[in-house]
């Protein structure tokens, strides 16, 4: 990742001391790692919560979704426990960077499952045309998916550089 930023023309301050350039370099050097760790903390927190029956407000939705996605093979508390294990694993890989690529693959699959209620239970998610609290909870996963794209690109070796506009 490039950590250089072009000097601003208007200030005449050298790029190495220009506050905007310094901020740009710092953000370029640390932003993706901060995104990765914060995503890991969020996924880990949601996952650990599911180990305690009744503690997660998403528990009923998880049960229903996993039951539908597995055609009834995994249901009830087993569905919640499986989700808890998966989310805990994902969170730990993101936080530590250990098995990161594996964690990102698992997360990609998990995100498909996390967002599937919008398709599987559309009528329940938007009963009067507006999203329920559950639908809003699922919508936040769109942001997580975008974060996974950035983290995944870096983990696969892509160079992410700021635009030169």
Automatic annotation (TrEMBL):
This is DoxX protein. Keywords: Membrane, Transmembrane, Transmembrane helix. The chain crosses the membrane at residues 26-48, 98-122, 142-160. It comes from the Bacteria.
């Amino acid at each position: 990742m490039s950590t250089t930023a072009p000097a601003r023309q208007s200030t005449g301050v050298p790029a190495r001391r220009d506050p905007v350039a310094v901020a740009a370099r710092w953000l370029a050097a640390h932003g993706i790692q901060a995104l990765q760790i914060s995503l890991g903390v969020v996924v880990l927190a949601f996952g650990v919560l599911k180990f305690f029956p009744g503690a997660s407000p998403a528990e009923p939705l998880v049960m229903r979704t996993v039951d539908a996605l597995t055609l009834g093979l995994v249901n009830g508390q087993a569905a919640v426990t499986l989700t808890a294990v998966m989310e805990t694993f994902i969170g730990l890989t993101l936080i530590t960077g250990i098995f990161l690529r594996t964690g990102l693959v698992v997360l990609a699959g998990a995100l498909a499952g996390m967002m599937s209620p919008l398709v599987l239970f559309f009528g329940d998610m938007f009963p009067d045309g507006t999203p329920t609290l559950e639908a809003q909870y699922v919508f936040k996963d769109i942001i997580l998916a975008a974060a996974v794209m950035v983290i995944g690109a870096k983990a696969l070796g892509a160079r992410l550089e700021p635009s030169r506009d």
